[in-house]
Amino acid sequence: MANRPMLEIVSLEKRFGTNTILKKIDLKVAEGELVFVIGPSGSGKSTMLRCCNRLEEPTSGDIIVDGRNIMAGTRRDLDRMRLQIGMVFQGFHLYPHMSVLKNVTLAQRKALKRSKVEADARAMDMLEQVGMEHKADAYPGELSGGQQQRVAIARSLALDPKVMLFDEPTSALDPELVGSVLKVMKDLKSKGMTMVVVSHEMGFARETADRVVFMDGGVVVEQGTPDEIFGAPKAERTRAFLSRVSG
Amino acid sequence: MDIFIDQFFNIEIMRKSLPLLITGLWMTLQLCSAVILLGLIGGLFVALGNMSERRWLRWLSIAYTDLFRALPPLVLLIFIYAGLPFAGINISPFAAVVIAFLLNNSSYYAEVYRAGLISVAKGQWEAAQSTGLSPAQTLIYVVLPQAVRNVLPDLLSNTVEVVKLTSLASVISLSELLYNAGMARSVTYNASPLVLAALFYLVLLWPLVRLVSHFQRRLAA
Ligand SMILES: Nc1ncnc2c1ncn2[C@@H]1O[C@H](COP(=O)(O)OP(=O)(O)OP(=O)(O)O)[C@@H](O)[C@H]1O
Ligand SMILES: [Mg+2]
Known about the structure:
Chain A is of the alpha/beta class and 247 residues long. Chain A has helices at residues 45-52, 75-82, 100-110, 116-129, 145-157, 175-190, 202-208, 226-231, 236-246; strands at residues 5-16, 19-30, 34-38, 60-65, 68-69, 85-88, 163-167, 194-198, 211-216, 219-224. Chain A has a domain at 92-160. In chain A, helix 3 (100-110) packs across helix 4 (116-129), helix 3 (100-110) runs parallel beside helix 5 (145-157) and helix 4 (116-129) crosses helix 5 (145-157). The interface between A and B is medium-sized, with 27 and 18 residues. Residues 45-46, 167 of chain A line the site of magnesium ion (MG).
């Protein structure tokens, strides 16, 4: 069943005090689709992603993952549904007091209740997928930023999420390390993962994204294929933004 | 000089008072274990209350830590032991000491925990919860180990204070180390048992004090 929606953001609104940051956002992401989100600083990109797993509590609206509304249900249900939504942060946020392997097995053991054998095996698979299996016993502090980010991706993948959210996954990396992380993301896409990526890596978007979404001031201003958005943006605000970032 | 040695380092008298002092030491250790263990647990809950999203819990926690850090522990102890009976509440000396010092001690532990919890980056909470860990699991496996490591010297310092604090229990005639040493002194008319008790405290606390310095230096490095 191709093209069924895997993630639906339905008239999502977020206010901080009297400040409305997200204004009735609607966005559908199909299974296996990679949606690339761009927009100026403060436009609400991070807030939108963080509302998708309720790290930020939406003021109103619905978030539907594979047909289930994560805004409904108890705290327990939320923990369970978060397993289906992987999140990768700009700052990696690996657990510094645990080895790489432990980082990847913790939630498998405690949230998914997998056995140690099963969790370890799954972790090694995922570490291999991101090219980090040789560092399973290392601690995060001993890794480069790019390596840490790949471990963080493995930590999310090990839980078999249905959607992966990336919030500027390469923005904290030295330029020479960016490629290794983008490659992992490209692999993921080719394996059919549904992904929403907030990033400034326009080259990656052109190559990999199915759709580019331009946000500004808490609304989706324009969306389309990479060719449409980068080649022939319709809205004035999109044009202004793109000429600023490319120029 | 002989008089000095005879009065303070009289081996014969030390030997004779040793059983009494050992009994006292045992009581001191029981007191310490109870106050430290319960304090470590209670203090954590008070610290969590302090960081809660519920305002009344925050206020309760702040009132608790303010009150019991401001009240002198000896005042608390005498109030609980000698004051509460006037309200018809009779408490054994042991329980009175544990309760009084627990109130005091858990407040200090709570402040230390709070500093530790704040020192852990918010991203750690978010990363853990985004992988489906519950708030309690996040606290236990991810945040608390880092928090404790960051404030280990302060937790240990506070523990040293607890051990010293228990000597105040002698005031209500609880037969802990200092009280028993005082007994031995009055029976033998000799200060050597007090010196021996001081040595016991030293042996008990000196390693801890060293450990504090060790961790402080390591954290500073
Ligand atoms: N916890 C918060 N409290 C108050 N305001 C907030 C909070 N988090 C975000 N904001 C505000 O919401 C707006 C959108 O922030 P957001 O981080 O989503 O933007 P962004 O598009 O991700 O920007 P950037 O490209 O800089 O990461 C900003 O104006 C920000 O100041
Ligand atoms: Mg952002």
